[in-house]
Amino acid sequence: MKSLKVHLLRHGLTDGNKNGQYIGVTDLPLNKEGIEELNWLKINAVYPDVRIGFVSPLLRCRQSMEILYPDINPIVVDNLREYNFGRFEGKTAHELEKDADFIKWTSGKADSPPGGEPGRDFKIRTCLALNQVVNHLLSSGENEGVVITHGGVIASILSACAVPRKPIFRWLCQNGRGYTVRILPSLYQRSGLIEVIEEIPFGG
Prior knowledge:
Elements: E1 4-10, H1 15-18, H2 32-44, E2 53-55, H3 59-68, E3 75-76, H4 93-96, H5 100-106, H6 119-140, E4 144-149, H7 151-161, E5 162-163, E6 178-183, H8 185-191, E7 194-200
Parallel strand pairs: 1-4, 2-3, 2-4, 5-7
Antiparallel strand pairs: 1-6, 6-7
């Protein structure tokens, strides 16, 4: 069975990213700077040439797909949506630095923000999203596809499944950028392992 390549890309810049806010389920659009940067990268860097795409349902990801891959009608995968930050949604770390619940969460003493998504559930959900992508590629006969999603989702998938092994924060990537992973279906089905082979886009 042939290996698969999945290109994991983070959406373009939003005002929430620019302001350092925790933005998960809030459905922000790309800002002007984010749109301009993606268009610049599309011209000056090289994104993988693929025929099939998968996207988070949130607007910033769908807009990024439209800019980078206008000829693809992407498959929306609900499990690719970003982490729910609960009460911390829309706040900055500076605004929350004296909040007791925030201190507990960032120190690892709480699994989730108040009203937010438990970390273990997020890990399970994002791994399920990858599994949905892999299964669709296998059933479609395609061996390569692009996924446009969120920084937290990419980091969660790679920290759970990827070699080389790295903690989640080491897999965070900039807007409009990401990683290509190689997946051997037999190995993936046995162990859930994938291999990170390069950063994308090339020259970006």
